[in-house]
């Protein structure tokens, strides 16, 4: 007896709402895959701009700006990243890499979840697993962002912009998604027991 509940079986074809859900899920799976690729490129950019092109980055208490064009670059309260010690630049790179991991893993699991929905698989154990991971990584994100920024500051980094309302939103959303995953697992277990009983 299968533990996977799908919208479409051999006995019937998908209804219009199910077809709509599948089409939207296919589109969202692609969107999350693109966003995942952008996140990976952002992390790769942190390595490149920290180690190879630090003369194109200005850093200050509110974050960093990429700059291109003629020197000298001048923005009040900001300094050229190339003028920072190598240890500070490496810490800045690690800051971005640490903060990018929860984002990348959330997007990876969102892609996997909507790919399942696109194939008609819903309320299955695998769906709940993806939701649990999404909730977990959303919960991890604010702490990773804080730890990454503290590391950067410990090595002389000037960026103090670690806190934003987005971090609180990530915590709350992560908790909600995690509970929804638990509810799905309970529902799937009840459905499985009911099927075995019948």
Percent strand: 5-15%
The count of strands amounts to 5
**What is the residue-averaged pLDDT?**
86
Measured between the Cα atoms of the first and last residue, the distance is: 11 Å
Q: How large, in whole angstroms, is the Cα Rg?
A: 22 Å
Q: Which range best describes the helical content: under 10%, 10-25%, 25-40%, 40-55%, 55-70% or over 70%?
A: 55-70%
What is the count of helical runs?
A: 4
| Major sheet summary line | 3 strands, antiparallel
Assembly annotation: single chain
Order of helices and strands: EHEEEHEHH
Shape: elongated
Give the strand order of the largest sheet, numbering strands 1, 2, ... along the chain: 3-2-4
The stretches of 5 or more residues where confidence is low (pLDDT under 50) are none
Q: Structural class, judged by helices and strands?
A: mainly alpha
């Amino acid at each position: 007896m299968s533990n996977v509940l799908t919208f479409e079986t051999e006995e019937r074809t998908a209804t219009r709402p199910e077809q709509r859900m599948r089409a939207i899920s296919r589109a969202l799976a692609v969107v999350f895959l693109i966003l995942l690729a952008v996140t990976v490129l952002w992390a790769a950019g942190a390595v490149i701009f920290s180690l190879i092109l630090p003369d194109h980055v200005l850093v200050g208490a509110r974050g960093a700006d990429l700059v291109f064009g003629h020197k000298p670059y001048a923005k009040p309260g900001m300094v050229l990243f190339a003028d920072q010690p190598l240890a500070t630049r490496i810490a800045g790179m690690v800051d971005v890499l640490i903060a990018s991991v929860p984002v990348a893993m959330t997007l990876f699991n969102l892609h996997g979840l909507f790919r399942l929905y696109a194939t008609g698989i819903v309320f299955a154990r695998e769906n709940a697993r993806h939701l649990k991971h999404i909730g977990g990584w959303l919960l991890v994100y604010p702490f990773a962002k804080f730890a990454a920024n503290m590391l950067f500051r410990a090595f002389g980094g000037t960026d103090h912009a670690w806190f934003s309302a987005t971090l609180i939103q990530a915590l709350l959303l992560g908790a909600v998604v995690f509970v929804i995953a638990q509810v799905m697992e309970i529902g799937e277990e009840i459905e499985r027991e009911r099927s075995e009983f019948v």
